[in-house]
Design a protein that fits this description.
isomerase; EC 5.4.99.62; intramolecular lyase activity; RbsD-like fold; 131 residues; 22% strand; 6-stranded mixed β-sheet
């Protein structure tokens, strides 16, 4: 059995297959996911699992060089923004319109759906390298 923190087989597989500049997305229960993007659905009920729980889990294995957030998070969900910034203080953030984020899901290896029920709790993680 795997000893690392990411024990979900689909998430582990996607992370293992990622290379430099590849993207993985994590988001709230309402984010529309393109049919061409793999959706790993972890949502059980409202708030379970939370966006931040899943993000922390993924960050335990994925090297991230940049994150992308919806511009709207600044006004509509400043608490989640603050939590992300605390979790990843050294990681550069690029803010993009939410409409662009939805389009960018077409370029992600996968989208991990959480039970999060707060607005704009979505992130694109750009993979870095460990060397």
């Amino acid at each position: 059995m795997k000893k690392t923190k990411v024990i979900n087989s689909d998430i582990s597989r996607v992370i293992a297959q990622m290379g430099h500049f590849d993207k993985l997305s994590i988001g709230d229960a309402g984010m529309p996911v393109p049919m061409t993007t793999e959706k790993i659905d972890l949502a059980v009920t409202q708030g379970v699992p939370s966006f931040m729980e899943v993000l922390r889990n993924v960050l335990s294995e994925l090297e991230v060089q940049r994150i992308y957030l919806a511009e709207e998070i600044k006004k509509e969900n400043p608490d989640i923004l603050l939590e992300i910034q605390k979790e990843m203080p050294e990681t550069p953030i690029t803010f993009i319109p939410h409409s662009e984020m939805k389009t960018e899901l077409n370029n992600c290896h996968a989208f991990i759906r959480t039970g999060e029920m707060t607005p704009y709790a979505n992130i694109l993680l750009e993979s870095g390298v460990v060397f």
